[in-house]
Design brief:
Blueprint lengths: L1 E7 L6 H15 L2 E8 L6 H8 L3 E5 L10 H16 L1 H4 L2 E5 L1 H7 L8 E5 L23 E5 L2 H11 L5 E4 L6
Length: about 180
């Protein structure tokens, strides 16, 4: 059975969280085992109970500044996942799906895998001066794929960042 890791920064109700749900549902329908990974957020949120009913594991931990964690359980969990994702992600998961380029920028150095897909779900209008705040390194690894949900996103990214080294893929969320 193929295993996939789906990373995001929360499980509230929103566009990115709905995409996480759709990826989880697709994985289950196609005989894959998804694990949802939430970074730097320990709150129980809307989709936690949904995934519990679906028997999908949700991991909530931190990958940066783990030595500042005061709770020994959270520290050990964070250390375990930091080591696992840097050294064993490719051996554990067939692919890593990261929803939102903000999340991708935050965790790209912490998850080493040859099949990383960074889902771009926003537009520049959501940012001050219509300028994205991601580092250029998000787009530089030729092993990574940037998944756009519309062509306008790709045009915005290319206009701001120039040549994109990662593979660029279009994916329609809505067919009608």
């Amino acid at each position: 059975m193929k295993k996939i890791l789906i990373a995001n920064f929360c499980l509230e109700i929103g566009g990115g969280e709905k995409l996480v749900f759709e990826l989880v549902q697709f994985a289950l329908e196609n005989n894959m085992k998804p694990t949802v990974f939430i970074i730097d957020n320990y709150r129980k949120e809307y989709y936690d109970s949904v995934y519990k009913k679906m028997h999908v594991r949700v991991i909530r931990t931190r990958l940066d500044h783990i030595f500042s964690l005061k709770d020994p359980f959270k520290f050990l969990r964070a250390l375990y996942w930091k080591i696992k994702l840097i050294y064993f992600a490719s051996a554990t998961y067939n692919s890593v799906q990261v929803v939102n380029l903000f999340t991708a920028d935050k965790i790209r150095e912490h998850i080493r895998h040859k099949k990383r897909f960074f889902w771009h779900i926003g537009n520049a209008i959501q940012y001050p001066d219509r300028r994205y705040t991601y580092s250029k390194e998000v787009f530089s690894n030729p092993d990574d794929s940037i998944v756009y949900i519309n062509r306008y996103q790709q045009q915005e990214i290319e206009a701001q960042y120039g040549q994109i080294g990662a593979r660029q893929v279009g994916f329609k969320l809505f067919l009608n």
